[in-house]
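Human
Can I borrow your eye for a moment on a structure tokenisation matter? Give me a protein, with the fold worked out from its sequence. Write it directly below this note and I will take it from there.

Assistant
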Amino acid sequence: MDTAKLRGLGVAMVTPFNSNYQIDYPALDKLIEFLIGNGINYLVVQGTTAETATLTDSEKRELADYVVKKVNGRVPIVLGIGGNDTHKVIETYTKFDLSGIDAILSVTPYYNKPTQKGLYLHFKTIAQSTNLPIILYNVPGRTGVNMTADTTLKLAHEFQGKIIAVKEASGNLTQMGYILRDRPTGFRVLSGDDGLTLPQIAMGADGVISVLGNCAPAQFSRMVNLALQGNFAEAAKIHLTLIELIDLLFVEGNPSGVKAALNALGIIDNVLRLPLAPVGELTYEKLKKELEKLK
């Protein structure tokens, strides 16, 4: 994969469900067209925002195949495949038809809290087991473990051209700074925090894999691309119009907030699988109000 394709706005898509808690493919069609039509650069399927932990193996395969066919090469597709059992992750690669997938997003193992050596060996083993390029995903707030800059850089240099990027969602600008300073040529550093995207691009980051991009793709794509062009004054104006919406998307958890926003836009039903639940009425109304402002 040409890593230049990862510059800009990648959207971590939600998985729409109908009232019977089954995947809502007509709503997924609407969402894909909404995103592509509003200038996103690539799609991320079956990340955290997709409620992937609640999908069965057969649903995951069916969903990935469906998105590949629907997108039909219009934008790159990144598929989330990760877990806290290294060999099960590798087994998953063998079960998927990965044709049409441009790269894999693989989260740091959660719950079992490996050491930095364990993290390095986990991703080394995965990198040696697939031909697809890999994007590392560091999100300590969810996994309970932080992958340090040293570990990320060791993997990036040792597997240059195979491990091609990191989605850095630690919220630690200093940690990201070390990665940006010492990364190998072509290695992409992507924000995993919508609210920090602008300052991170100012430091040298290449874009974002976003939750906000689901419901404000045109506005956020414009902000990201203005920042990448060095027009920080105009990008900052857009950033400041979006900060309250970003806060509201996460105040009752993700993807509860963004599913409420997409429901308010008339794109999906406001349905989540347990243990997640829809946001409260007050948050829903605040989200509607912020989305109205964007119009």
